[in-house]
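During the second half of the funding period, the structural biology subgroup turned its attention to how the target accommodates small molecules. The most pressing case was zinc ion, which had performed well in the primary screen but for which no bound structure existed. We therefore specified the complex as follows and requested a full 3D prediction, including the ligand pose.
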Amino acid sequence: MTRKYIDCRKLGAAGACSLAISGNEEEVLDLAVIHGIVAHGHDDPYKLRLELRAQLQDAPEAKSALA
Ligand SMILES: [Zn+2]
């Protein structure tokens, strides 16, 4: 499964920080919503989740010697 990736710097939010999150889609969204609320003062988790879902990108796969 392709990892998804979201980069707070690219979200264009006021006070966007340097955080980037990668993982499966639901993991990234769960954490990103919490982050948006705690760190950036968002107050609508449902709307935020929809916005974040639209911003998900495929994460570059790390090369692994074990692959
Ligand atoms: Zn942030």
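Two results from this model are relevant to the next phase. The beta strands are 4-7, 20-23, 57-58. The mean pLDDT is 88.
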